Amino acid sequence: MIYLDNAATTLQKPPEVAAAVYRAVNTCATPGRGSHAAAMRAAETVYSCREEAAALFHVPAPEQVAFTMNATHGLNIAIHSLVTPGGRVVVSGYEHNAVMRPLYALGARVDVAASPLFQPHAALEAFRARIPGAQAVICTHASNVYGFILPIKEIAALCRQEGVPLIVDAAQSAGVLDLDFAALGAAFIAMPGHKGLLGPQGTGLLLCREGAEPILFGGTGSMSASRAMPDFLPDRLEAGTVNVYGIAGLEQGLRYLRRTGLRSVREREGDGMAHLAAGLRPLPGLRLLEGPPGTQTGVLSVVTETMNCEEAAEALGGAGVAVRAGLHCAPLAHETGGTLDTGTVRLSLGPFNTEGEMRRVCGVFENILKNGYKL
C-alpha cells in the first residue's frame, strides 16, 4: 500500500515509537501516584516528553506543555478559556470543525477573515481589518484540506499589537513547519501527537502561555485535599491518568524530529509534492488545487471531473493507494476554496514517502481517469 493519508494520521513512523510504547506497557505504572519504581518510571517518561516538546517548540518551561487526547481536545480547552457567549471571535476561512463547532456551541459571534486560496497577503489583510476589538483570534497554521500555509507570524504580530489573544491550530504544521511558541506570543497552540509529530493516536499537546480553564475535572495526583482543580500548569488541565503509553511513543517521535530536523522533513515532503503534482497536472479530467512555491505543505487536494471524489478515492484504495475523500471535517475551508459542492480527493504526504511511490500513484490515477470507477 502507498499511504497518502498522513494529514489524518501518519501510519509510517520511526521504529523507536512502537518500541517505546511496548516498553512503557511493560514497565510504566501511573505517574504522580506513587513512589515505587514503575510509577517513577512513568513520571520520568511523561516529564521527558514535556521537555522534548518544549525544546522543539521553544516553550519557556516544560510545565507549559499540557497533554491532551488530540488537537480537538486542546482547541476546546483553549476556546473555553478565552471565549464567552456572544464574544466576537475572528477565524480564518480555512478552519476545521474542531474550531468551528466549539464556537457555535458557545454562542460566539464568528467573524470570518475570508480570503482567496493560496494568497497569504490577502489573508493577512483580512485579519488586519477584523482583529481590533475581537475577544480572540483563532487561526489554523496550515489548511488540512489544501495545505495552504497561512501567514501565522504576521497574524500573531497583529494580535500582539492589538492585545488580542491568539489560538493557533497546528494540527497540520506541527512537526513540519517551524513553530516558535515564544516568538509568536500566542495564548495557546494546539496540536495532535499522531500526525506530523509521528506519535501514537490518543496523544496531543497544548502549549499554554499562562493559566487555562479545564473542561475535565478530577484527580491530578497533586492538591488532593482541595475541592478545586490545581491553579497551576500542567496539573490544572490533566485530570485523571494521562496516556503514558502514548506519551512514551510521542517522546520518540519528537526526538526523531529534533534529530532529523524539520528542514529535512519539509524538503522530503516538498520533493514528493513536486513529483506528485508534476505527474498529475497533465492528466485530463483532473483539477489540482495547488499554490505557488512556499504556500503549501505536503497536502494536495484534487477534483475529478468524471466521477465524484468518493468513487475516485475508492478506486485508488482498490489499487493500493490510501487517500481521503469528502469535506475532511472542514466545510468552511471548502466554502472558501470553492469545493463545497464537490469535496476533494486529498493526497497527503509524510516524511517516509518516496519518489517512486509518487510515480506509481500518478500511473494509477491515470488508469482510473481513463477506465472509470472499475479498473
Order of helices and strands: EHHEHEHEHEHEHEEHHEEHEEHEH
From the 3D structure, determine the CATH topology of the largest domain.
Aspartate Aminotransferase, domain 2
Which CATH class of the largest domain?
Alpha Beta
Radius of gyration: 21 Å
Strand order across the biggest sheet? 2-8-7-6-5-3-4
Distance between the ends = 17 Å
Low-confidence stretches: none
What is the number of domains?
2
Give the overall average pLDDT. Answer: 97
- What is the CATH architecture annotation of the largest domain? 3-Layer(aba) Sandwich
The helix fraction, in percent, is: 40-55%
Q: Can you summarize this structure?
A:
This protein is α/β, with parallel strands linked by helices and 375 residues long.
Give a description of the structure.
The protein is an alpha/beta fold and 375 residues long. It has two domains: 15-260, Aspartate Aminotransferase, domain 2 (3-Layer(aba) Sandwich); 261-371, Alpha-Beta Complex (Aspartate Aminotransferase, domain 1), CATH 3.90.1150. The chain has twelve helices and 13 strands. The protein has helices at 15-27, 37-57, 71-82, 97-106, 120-130, 152-162, 181-184, 244-260, 262-280, 309-318, 331-337, 355-371, and strands at residues 2-3, 65-68, 88-92, 109-113, 136-140, 166-169, 188-192, 204-208, 286-289, 299-304, 321-322, 324-326, 344-348. It has a seven-stranded mixed sheet with strand order 2-8-7-6-5-3-4, sandwiched between helices. A four-stranded antiparallel sheet has the order 9-10-13-12, covered by helices on one side. The two termini are 17 Å apart.
